[in-house]
Amino acid sequence: MQENKASRNLNDRFTAFISRHHLFTQKHRLLVAVSGGVDSVVLCHLCKEAGFDFGIAHCNFTLRGEDSNRDEAFVREWSKQLNVPFHVVKFATQQYSEEQKLSTQVAARNLRYQWFEQVCVEHEYDFILTAHHADDNIETVLMNFFRGTGINGLTGIQPVHQQVRRPLLFAKRHELESYLKWHGLSFVQDESNLHDDYTRNYFRNTVLPLVAKTYPEVQDNLLDNIGRFNDVAILYRQEIKRLSKKLLITRGEQIHLPVLLLQKTPAMKTVLLELIKPYGFKATQLNEVIQLLGSESGRYTLAPSHRILKDRKHLIISPLENVADTAVVIEKGTGTWEFAKGAITLTKTSVATPGKEVHVALLDEALIQYPLLLRPWRAGDYFYPLGMKGKKKLAKFFVDQKLSLADKEKVWVLEMNRKIVWVVGYRIDDRFKMTDKTKSVLKIEWRSQSKKPMD
Amino acid sequence: MQENKASRNLNDRFTAFISRHHLFTQKHRLLVAVSGGVDSVVLCHLCKEAGFDFGIAHCNFTLRGEDSNRDEAFVREWSKQLNVPFHVVKFATQQYSEEQKLSTQVAARNLRYQWFEQVCVEHEYDFILTAHHADDNIETVLMNFFRGTGINGLTGIQPVHQQVRRPLLFAKRHELESYLKWHGLSFVQDESNLHDDYTRNYFRNTVLPLVAKTYPEVQDNLLDNIGRFNDVAILYRQEIKRLSKKLLITRGEQIHLPVLLLQKTPAMKTVLLELIKPYGFKATQLNEVIQLLGSESGRYTLAPSHRILKDRKHLIISPLENVADTAVVIEKGTGTWEFAKGAITLTKTSVATPGKEVHVALLDEALIQYPLLLRPWRAGDYFYPLGMKGKKKLAKFFVDQKLSLADKEKVWVLEMNRKIVWVVGYRIDDRFKMTDKTKSVLKIEWRSQSKKPMD
């Protein structure tokens, strides 16, 4: 009787959770991901009792031979019992994970979600339902916490993520087990538990029980935390959004960030990281960007798609294709990089004799720092032409070389820290040339688009 | 040599931490709290090497007999060696904790900080220095996390708290131990460790080492977390401040909070709690206040100093002394409460015979809900006088009772949920009287200020 009440209670909390988080309604068609384990079996039963319109999807990962087939047969039978559509697929998970060089766990997840989405399209399901529950959520947050995280890592598994809905997040594992027992439902050893990593099981079975000895309410405390941290994260993001509006000034394709205003901002480092993250900059680059604040004009930091340039009183964030046509960032001293005018190949060598080949540059490797930037030349560029003492504007250099207007337009330069290293196909910079002291040579070879080296 | 470098490194990081957090300078006089344990011995040595102007304060808590005296002697000797002023005090900690009904730990802390502050005044010290270090900080945050916390609990021990400065927060315990060993410093078994609670030691010695098996970098990860959460907390508080300005409208002594605007606010519950916290409302009252949002006008919730009243489209927060002179909140059905006109005492009894004593009210306890509010009557008040069927305005009742203007001004009422329960010293409300069905009686006795019961 007690248990019946608790079970009834779970049905009510299930529908209450769904409507509170606006997960879905009776009008939607739901695809429930079912491994056959306790959690997904209970999820189906709750959906059935609540009268939702759903089908079942089961992945056979073929990782455990006959056991995998047994699970598939079980879920097929369970679908029949519930009288709902059944979708099944067999994956060559092992093979896929080897081909794609992924862990079995990641491979299984990729395959699974790709297929779910496909089933949704083909059979007109609105949402994918998974059986993640409160214990999963606690374990996830705990692992994030110990692994190091910002506020987002403490908000846990979200009830809504793209097409996925997770209507069991409110329920604890033991509640699902009681429900299952009360209704006399069968289940199989959940295959997904076997993919589940060692760390999660360690936290579940070893760390959490130890903490519970001191704080018996630890599960509820952590769930309450997750609720609060979701709110904190919402308010935090609002504040970041407000600061973005205040600090980022859009100028055409560029974003200007006033250095003084930024430096006066409380929690400056965190704010700066949040401001540059959307442009592809990583937390590991933060210190580099902070150094830009105090550096002379012209210094910059690169992300795959954007550049942050220090320009007097501002940091200027620009898309790279805008900065320099389709500029190319060269992160290290070996390899080949394609660009609009062909490709350049960098190699290191200990011996090299400078020749007349203008499509090859031989530089003192010790003087080169990465990243390098390959970009079209622009007005105002200058360099120290090889063999000359002084510097020369590129415009003047091209006149001396008697270049046509059309030829001039095609010229690209290789740049390091605002210094031109090589006017590609014409002349290297005197400051980076090989000398008697050179121990290692950086050889850069350019093949033009037409595959004919230019000379 | 390696170790010397690490030790040197600690000196540099010590001064860097102090200047980065603006803790103090060479101009300040510092009082270092020294138990004689590793941490505080190292703190003194670092202060000496950095050339800071400091004295040593030692508390003898007399909790461990001769051991306590040995510690005191050790610290006295250590002060001589360092050639700095020594301040010492003996506390009858056990006696104090029993008198004040405090745990030994809390008692010791109270005594210690009170005395430190006194020494600072008498001997012109600017700041009190304690030797809390990174491991303390990690353990504190971890305990908060498992006990349940908001963002503030994840920001850890602060380097600055009132007059206290904590310049060792950057250092790990093992670094302090290496420093001590390298410099060949002596120390005693830190008495404060004995006061330290069981939980902290459990986390230090059992939980953290287990987590480190999976995440060897857990200490650094948690320290990084603390840094990030401090920034998150700053940005969170800024957003709360902005929302306060937007949502709270000051009207004289009252604060108006527009219900619709509040309900549209993201993370509403958390925002609401932050808005009402400064007025003494607790997290445990939050659901009650949320219910007010949808309730009819006139309902309210009380904190010791303030009331939140639902009034049509607003919640109105008012100071109680303003709402009703020096109104008194009665939270439970037994005890004595002082107020401007004397005191009332509430007791529960199973048998009582109503008499003529108007300074005593006998009510059906089952009908009474807490808190009750004791306040001066005001225009518009009405009640159902005992023995009458209908309701009557108090103004009319006083006329019938032939009260003088001066007497009228002195009348107070006891109110429950906007209903008057008792016109104190005159008449109870008919709705709350004892009947045949009454099982338990709430007896309320009023003694007037002059200690003469009024009748």
From TrEMBL, chains A, B:
NCBIfam families: lysidine_TilS_C, lysidine_TilS_N. The keyword Cytoplasm applies. Its EC number is 6.3.4.19. ATP binds at S35, G36, G37, V38, D39, S40. Keywords: ATP-binding, Cytoplasm, Ligase, Nucleotide-binding, tRNA processing. It comes from the Bacteria. It is an enzyme of class 6 (ligase). Ligates lysine onto the cytidine present at position 34 of the AUA codon-specific tRNA(Ile) that contains the anticodon CAU, in an ATP-dependent manner. Cytidine is converted to lysidine, thus changing the amino acid specificity of the tRNA from methionine to isoleucine. The gene is tilS. Its main location: cytoplasm. Residues 372-444 form the Lysidine-tRNA(Ile) synthetase C-terminal domain. Belongs to the tRNA(Ile)-lysidine synthase family. This is tRNA(Ile)-lysidine synthase. The lineage of its organism: Bacteria, Pseudomonadati, Bacteroidota, Chitinophagia, Chitinophagales. GO terms for molecular function: tRNA(Ile)-lysidine synthase activity.
